Amino acid sequence: MQTLREFTRKTKRGNILKIVREHYLRDDIGCGSELCRECFQNEVYQLTSQHANKSTLFKFPHYLVLDTNVVLDQIDVLEEDVLRNVVVLTTVLNEVKHRSSAIYKRFNEIVHDRTRNFYVFVNEHHKETYADREPDETANDRNDRAIRLATKWYDDHLQASQSSKEFERSGKAATRVVLLTDDAANRAKAEAEGILVTTAAEYVKSLEDFPLLMDKLSHKTFDSEKNGLPQYPPHLSMKELLEGLRQNKLLQGTFQASRENYLEGTVNVEKFEKGILIQGRESLNRAVDGDLVAVELLPEAEWSAPSEIVLEEKNVYADEVPSEERAKDENEMLNQVRAAALSAERTPTGRIVGIVRRKWRQYCGILQPSLIEDTNRHIFVPADRKIPRIRIETRQAAMLQNQRIIVTIDTWPRNSRYPHGHFVRSLGPLGDMATENEVILLEHDVPHCKFSDEVLSFLPKMPWTITDEDYSKRVDLRDLYICSVDPPGCTDIDDALHCKELPNGNLEVGVHIADVSHFIRPGNALDMEAAARGTTVYLVGKRIDMVPELLSSNLCSLVGGVERFAFSCVWEVDNEANVLSKRFHKSVIKSKRAMTYEEAQNIIDDATQQNEIAKSLRNLNRLAKILKKRRMDNGALVLASPEIRFQVDSETHEPLEVEVKQMRETNSMVEEFMLLANITVAEHIATEFSECAVLRRHPRPPPTNFDPLVKSARYQGFQVDINSGLELSHSLDKCVKADNPYFNTMIRILTTRCMMQAVYFISGSLQKEEFFHYGLAAPIYTHFTSPIRRYSDIMVHRLLAASIGADSTYAQLLDRKSNEELCHNLNYRHKMAQYAGRASVALNTHLFFRGKEEDEEGYVLFVRKNALQVLIPKYGLEGTLYLKSDKDGKDGVERVKSEIVFTFNEEDHTQRCGDVVFHSFDPVTVRLSLDSSNVQHEKLIFRLVKPYIKGFSVETTTEGTDSQAVSAAPPSKKTKKDKKKK
């Protein structure tokens, strides 16, 4: 049967467009129940009597129908293997898909699990259950009516099937259909229509066999707070927000909470370079890190400045604490923050008046038991300091002590100090390496689940061999003396090199990159999974692959002595490294040897070795030095970061030794040719695909970013010129001190902190002058050389292959909007991978120093208002040594002896205590140890040994005794994988 569906849609120009679509209804759609004797069943019954839901509310067999809001709010309950025999209406599926793609994906996995007995009923195309939209009826009301109509039909249909005398003689109770809805209006209408109905919470509570399932219920409010006094200003309605944004009375941006100060945050708005400062609990107004918010800018007279003081929330307030006492306590803290900022340059300040879109996720952390005895209400403390504490209800508090758990936020009402949430699951014991790694991955949104069967189905079938047809389509380079140079233990080898002398006296140089795009075809499940992951993530002793191991460590890895597919970039160069010609081709190679940096360096340095590999490496090394000098002369920067490597126990996965990463000439040799390949490919694809080439840019930092560098260098007697990259490079080269060999490295570390983040973009989205890569001083750049671990490189391979006729294009490859969205995801994944790597290094640093105390030489990297930022070259790590800055305690740092006073000089950025003055780059000796008093946030403690300040420095005369312990932040820099590419 055919019917018509009409829609009205508003166009961008404001016109109303009427859309009429044909809609077909059928009478042969089965109900999916084994009880039915009428429907035509063309598949295995999904609704059976084998897994009955046992409820004290409905003491008879029953099937469940879920309302849309139940799926959206209670997905954590639904994922538990408890509820069976569930009818999923297509009305609900479509609405969930429209409102939350993340929950739709999770719900879809449940539906497709045959063991769960979830049956999708196509009610929108069944002639008895289709509900046409009535005049003046909203889409939401129509969907609610469709759900009720389908539920009623199902119940009547099953009762009719069970009315036979044969069924009555069996003595079995009739199976009914129950609607679960948390919508009060929908429930009232269902009851009026004679439908069995209840809420999700009431139903879960009625499941006596599963009392712990109640912990996973989403709570919109706690009963005791329904009539509580407001603690936050009300949020504006969405209509008011949109009107305020349209009239430019309000500004919209993403909220970023401060990690150091829980009463502070910023909102990134396009019109403001550094974002809008938000200070105070009421001004923050229930925003959570990542939320898209609306901000009202305060009058300029009320503007403030970001605080340089660490301020942590130490008190978890119970309900019985009077609101006046809370307000007094917080006002005191806020006054300290604002007082400290009075002398600083003020920045635009505002207050949050509404939430445009929440970006809540699942959070890892620990449970803090309630101060009230015999209660199920507890406070959850997230591992991420930027996230507020969350109030949950759980009956498992005793069991969850000293466990890492996951909690999600449900709501944050005005009358609650903390947001409300619910328990999702436990990760494992606190401090366990596997558990802590899981926390790092979850907190940084790193996809790390096993590759699905669908993804794995697109891998080559083993044993895999190269066929004659493959050879005929590729250039055969197996006779070349190609070799790879990588870090020790590297299994995902994605690049190799060769250099041979030509008869005309020139040199042929080739960079050969694993041809991953041959195995990953556009649009299939393997490709989509790689695109979603974006990058391989390297933790200490652990790697989260972007592609399955069969590709990353086997078929695509350019191991020695094995034939592999490659994408080759080959140049003819003269002896001064000038490129005379270039060519690209798909190839078959056979690497003669896979070496470490150290092995390759030893071959270069050993004059007795004169084989082809040795000659190739020496020529490559000589050319690389010329290329590097040329880059430096053009203004490329040599930056630095404190990097360390851990030797990890193969069984316990705990760090055994810490060592600073060593740089050899071979590191630079490989890097130079990877850079040359990336630049060469970027020039080519940008010419061939001017609108959709995937490129990488490094924006020039604003001059204000360089202020800490310029001031620190000036106080050391050096002038740093920041007018251009070339002048900056020359300035850094001159920053050398004979008595401090580490001084130049520290200057370059400071310079690294001033840089902007390099990002992927699409060529058609920017002007050509904006393509510039500031750090490399390259007018154009991309990533071509690491397709095993970066999806951006796979995209570049596809563009390059299409341009030389080695592969065909496809619609999405040339779609600018699609590629822009892809670049946004790649930038996000790249950033999260960096942060996860840093967190892993911090975790292993803490484990390494557990139970140890070491005195180490270091340097003052920054002098701050209430602290010294200290760098330890031996371990390549940083820490903060907090100082007492005045007598009245406004810095928020706990004092031991009030007569120890540090005075901060803002003009020359120094800290003075008596005769001792601290400048940037001054040598110090500090004692390193681990403070484990906070089980969730362990801290690496930096305590001053030299220069000696009585009453403050560590007393070294009596071993193991300390006169002062100053807390320190964990190292802020990470060790990346020992890579050679930028």
UniProtKB/TrEMBL annotation:
Residues 958-982 are annotated as: Disordered. CDD domains: PIN_Rrp44-like (cd09862). Residues 474-806 form the RNB domain. The keyword Acyltransferase does not apply. Residues 973-982 have a biased composition (Basic residues). Its cofactor is Mn(2+); Mg(2+). Keywords: Acetylation, Cytoplasm, Endonuclease, Exonuclease, Exosome, Hydrolase, Magnesium, Manganese, Nuclease, Nucleus, Phosphoprotein, RNA-binding, rRNA processing. InterPro entries: Dis3_CSD2 (IPR041505), NA-bd_OB-fold (IPR012340), PIN-like_dom_sf (IPR029060), PIN_dom (IPR002716), RNase_II/R (IPR001900), RNase_II/R_CS (IPR022966), RNR_Ribonuclease (IPR050180), Rrp44_CSD1 (IPR033771). Residues 62-188 form the PIN domain. Pfam families: OB_Dis3, PIN_4, RNB, Rrp44_CSD1, Rrp44_S1. It is found in: Cytoplasm; Nucleus, Nucleolus; Nucleus, Nucleoplasm. One of its GO terms (cellular component) is nucleoplasm. GO terms for biological process: CUT catabolic process; defense response to virus; mitotic cell cycle; nuclear mRNA surveillance of mRNA 3'-end processing; nuclear RNA surveillance; regulation of gene expression; rRNA catabolic process; rRNA processing. GO terms for molecular function: 3'-5'-RNA exonuclease activity; endonuclease activity; RNA binding; RNA endonuclease activity; RNA exonuclease activity. It comes from the Eukaryota. Belongs to the RNR ribonuclease family. Component of the RNA exosome complex; within the complex interacts with EXOSC4, EXOSC7 and EXOSC9 of the exosome core complex (Exo-9). The catalytically inactive RNA exosome core complex (Exo-9) associates with the catalytic subunit EXOSC10/RRP6. Exo-9 may associate with DIS3 to form the nucleolar exosome complex, or DIS3L to form the cytoplasmic exosome complex. Exo-9 is formed by a hexameric base ring consisting of the heterodimers EXOSC4-EXOSC9, EXOSC5-EXOSC8 and EXOSC6-EXOSC7, and a cap ring consisting of EXOSC1, EXOSC2 and EXOSC3; DIS3 associates with the base ring of Exo-9. This is Exosome complex exonuclease RRP44.
